[in-house]
Amino acid sequence: xxxxxxxxxxxxxxxxxxxxxxxxxxxxxxxxxxxxxxxxxxxxxxxxxxxxxxxxxxxxxxxxxxxxxxxxxxxxxxxxxxxxxxxxxxxxxxxxxxxxxxxxxxxxxxxxxxxxxxxxxxxxxxxxxxxxxxxxxxxxxxxxxxxxxxxxxxxxxxxxxxxxxxxxxxxxxxxxxxxxxxxxxxxxxxxxxxxxxxxxxxxxxxxxxxxxxxxx
Length: 216
Known about the structure:
four-stranded antiparallel beta sheet; 7 helices; 4 strands
């Protein structure tokens, strides 16, 4: 496999994996709660006479992040992407989102390249670095949360920001991985652009370097 073939394969794979649909501007509307037949007493009112809202779970400072909180799920996803564990990252995404399929495609592509070995592993290194590097040192901050829906803003190492939606399903939080999440950073895109290299075998030496002609 020539280096040109490897480069083309990697570029085509990158274009395919980043071509997913964008997430809607607004977060999914919270599901309407079903009518409850629970006969337990209502929660006590506070001093102003308002019913106290259920407590929202938050991460305990210093504790390992878990999917039981929106912040924990957001941090786990960022850590999986940063380490290149794209299978784990896909498991942390909502099964219905477009990005989950893209991550699974990436995992299959990398596995296939690893099996071929040799120069094909250059594709593995290229794609792993492309998708993991932006997430190294990323910080997650929950910007809004209501019921089983939440919004998170990631600040990446390049200072790019990514806004994502998370949703709670059966007590666990999942990330909606979209084009916004899968896209490479602007800095990376500039670095990946082909350089305008000088000709391999210039016919004319640079100015000021021509050898002196022998005197007759």
